[in-house]
Write a structure and sequence with these properties.
This is Prephenate dehydrogenase. This protein has 375 residues and is α/β, with parallel strands linked by helices. It folds into 3 domains: 2-177, NAD(P)-binding Rossmann-like Domain (Rossmann fold), CATH 3.40.50; 183-261, Orthogonal Bundle (6-phosphogluconate dehydrogenase C-terminal fold); 296-371, ACT domain (Alpha-Beta Plaits), CATH 3.30.70.260. It has 16 helices and 11 strands. It has helices at residues 10-21, 33-41, 50-58, 75-88, 102-111, 114-117, 157-169, 179-202, 209-212, 217-223, 230-239, 241-261, 268-283, 310-320, 350-359, 368-371; strands at residues 2-6, 25-29, 46-47, 68-71, 93-96, 120-125, 146-150, 173-176, 298-305, 327-332, 338-345. The strands form 2 sheets. The protein has an 8-stranded mixed sheet with strand order 3-2-1-4-5-6-7-8, sandwiched between helices. Helix 4 crosses helix 5, helix 8 crosses helix 12 and helix 12 (241-261) packs antiparallel against helix 13. The relative contact order is 0.08.
Length: 375
């Protein structure tokens, strides 16, 4: 397909890389010539010669026009860019990658004629990084990630098919959602987590360094996305303000209950336990691997020297035991050149893994085997 991408930031450039790798004909456009050329130099596509394209269109030829135009601009200018693309490319299907859909659709509807609106299909690939710009782009950014498509009964099937084919060409998994359902969902699973991560990280601004040095993996997990772009996220939160505000109001009610409980009055311990237990319930509903039902795994902790090749050796030893690693995480021991690796496995293989790793000389603190007196 011929695909034109307007906006060569992280998402636009990553999309160009993914589609170019599948031999699609990709052209690029950006208000910043430097950003546009950088994306092209990285292999995301070719810079569009807008003068030649305009001349050809003026002569009545649309043979070189794209089949799909993807708007990957910042959210605050996406609607205007979509409307302009619908006008400039009268035969193309126009889509976007903005993370808010309802308000964007309403604005586009105000800017274009109903006939043009039939050529617009809103999308949101659920992928990103804490880094921004084409320099952070990756061709596999969308692989195995959800790609939401917001169409309706009036969407021409052939245009919908084009957008689905493009999304699947990146390795993404296509999901069809109503725009309002999409916005309510991303408020809970993406937008509010960003706010909370930023608020937690902000409490570290004036904390003494000797306190921050105690930080473990829990703090890193909670604040990982706090390094996100403030300008971009201001636009996202403003675009989905109603849904985000609704979730935050519910969260404030529960937070107030915890604050009150911490006064340690009557019933306080029960309130604190309830807050943690409700969190357990919510956590258990997060999908497991490959979108499957949540699965409880056994966690085996291994102490790993912080030296080159050690992790490779560890995973080779696990592979030699013919045990699949379902997940893993790594923390670092304060003041020591030592890594603490938590390997998640199917519970039935926990004892076999511990026995095998102990026999290979790995240090497993308080393993189930040691507790049972087996080793």
């Amino acid at each position: 397909m011929r695909i034109h991408i307007i906006g060569t930031g992280l998402l636009g450039a990553s999309l160009g890389l993914a589609l170019s790798a599948q031999n699609h004909q990709v052209s690029l456009e950006d208000t910043s010539p430097t950003a546009q050329q950088l994306a092209a130099d990285l292999g995301a596509g070719q810079v569009l010669n807008t003068t030649s394209a305009a001349d050809a269109r003026g002569a009545g030829s649309t043979d070189g026009d794209p089949q799909i135009v993807v708007v990957a601009t910042p959210p605050d200018v996406a609607a205007q860019t979509i409307a302009a693309a619908l006008s400039h490319y009268p035969n193309a299907t126009v889509t976007d990658v903005a993370s808010v859909k309802t308000r964007l659709l309403e604005t586009v509807r105000e800017l274009v004629a109903p006939a043009e609106l039939d050529r617009y299909i809103g999308c949101h690939p659920m992928a990103g990084r804490e880094k921004s710009g084409a320099i952070a782009a990756r061709s596999d950014l969308f692989t195995a990630r959800p790609w939401v498509i917001c169409s309706d009964e009036d969407t021409p099937s052939e245009r919908l098919g084009e957008v689905v084919a493009m999304a699947e060409a990146t390795g993404a998994s296509v999901i069809h959602l109503d725009p309002r359902i999409h916005d309510a969902a991303v408020a809970k699973v993406s937008h509010v987590p960003q706010v909370i991560a930023s608020l937690v990280a902000s409490q570290l601004r004036h904390a003494p360094l000797d306190e921050i040095e105690l930080a473990g993996q829990g703090l890193r997990d909670v604040t990982r996305i706090a390094a996100s772009d403030p300008r971009l996220w201001t636009q996202i939160l403003a675009g989905n303000s109603e849904e985000v505000r609704s979730v935050l109001l519910d969260l404030r009610t529960e937070l107030d209950e915890v604050i009150t409980a911490l006064e340690l009055g009557p019933g306080s311990t029960g309130a604190l336990a309830k807050a943690i237990a409700l969190g357990n319930e919510g956590h258990d509903r997060i999908p497991g691997k490959h979108g499957q039902a949540p699965t409880k795994y056994a966690v085996v902790t291994i102490l790993v020297p912080d030296t080159p090749g050690t992790l490779a050796t560890l995973f080779k030893d696990i592979g030699d035991l013919d045990i699949n690693v379902e997940d893993f995480r790594m923390d670092h021991a304060p003041g020591q050149k030592l890594g603490i690796v938590d390997v998640s496995v199917v519970p039935a293989t926990q004892q076999e893994l511990e026995t095998g790793l102990l026999s290979k000389g790995w240090q497993i603190p308080e393993s189930a085997i040691e507790k049972e007196g087996i080793a």
